[in-house]
Amino acid sequence: MAELPGSEPRIYSFGKVACGILTHVLCVVFTVLITVLAKPGTSLFSWHPFLMTLAFSLFMTEAVLLFSPHCSPIRKLSHKTKGRVHWILQCLCASCATLGLASIFYNKHLNGKPHFASWHGLVGLGTLCVVGVQSLAALPLLYHSLAKGWSLAKLKRYHAASGLVTYLLGSVSLLLGICSVWFTGAVGGYTWYLAALCPALSTLVIMSQVSNTYMAKKRLVS
User: Fold this and answer.
1) What pLDDT shows up at residue 13?
2) What is the pLDDT of residues 45-99, one digit of tens each?
3) Which of 21, 72, 117, 160 has its CA 20 to 30 A from that of 13?
4) Closest listed residue to residue 92, CA positions, set 127, 52, 147
5) Is the Cβ–Cβ distance between 30 and 57 less than 8 Å?
6) Rounded to 5 degrees, what angle do the CA atoms 42, 48, 50 make?
């Protein structure tokens, strides 16, 4: 059967579905791996990698994938409902990241170690601040009365662009985390490289989803 003009090849569509499903799997596998290694509850420090991974690997990734036309678990729901679920997941992300930061801050305080003395700590702190601002800035998209004088279309574009930057910061923070002494001492060999692939591949898929979505909208407008 001939394809409709302007429609994408089936193999391309199938590839997007496969990448989306793979991203769902990767963020879950990575979160489970860190949970097993950290054993949350065994020490104050153990909460830090667990909560940060829960925030930036699971909640943030799933929050973005909600809008995927190919692999969203709530694809059939309205855009408004997706927006609210997205905001809830982002709030969970911010909450877990805040608790994760608090745990490592207090742990360093108890052990007399300097705070934010590494790139991992600095990027993590910056990411948490950006997540908080991003969540607050999304309120006009949920409650349109707050966006008086602003074009909702422009607000959505700004939110998507800043959200992508936020996701990139979160991924960099995770990658710096797996370069830490704790993680490199817990795993070795191919396991480290496989772990690094999880946030790296997820980031590529998220970047593709966001850029393709807004490039397509721009073509429709033009």
Assistant:
1) 82
2) 999 999 999 999 999 999 999 999 889 999 899 988 999 999 999 999 999 999 9
3) 160
4) 52
5) yes
6) 75
The residue with tokens 């990139």 is 168
Q: Are 32 and 58 contacting, i.e. CB atoms less than 8 angstroms apart?
A: no
pLDDT digits (tens, 9 = 90+) for 171-182: 999 999 999 999
Amino acid in position 74: I
Q: How confident is the model at residue 217 (pLDDT cuts 50, 70, 90)?
A: low
Q: What is the pTM of this model?
A: 0.89
Query: For residue 159, how many other CB atoms are within 10 A of its CB?
Result: 16
- Measured at the CA of 115, the angle between CA 110 and CA 52, to 5 degrees, comes to 90
Distances (CA, A) of 3 to 59, 71, 73, 144: 37, 22, 27, 39
Between CA 159 and CA 107 the distance in angstroms is: 34
Exposure string (b/e) for 18-32, b if CB count within 10 Å is 16 or more? ebbeebbebbeebbe
> Rounded to 5, what percent of the chain is helix, strand, coil?
75, 0, 25
Query: Rounded distance, CA 188 to CA 106, Å?
Result: 28
Distances (CA, A) of 99 to 15, 18, 53, 170: 37, 34, 12, 15
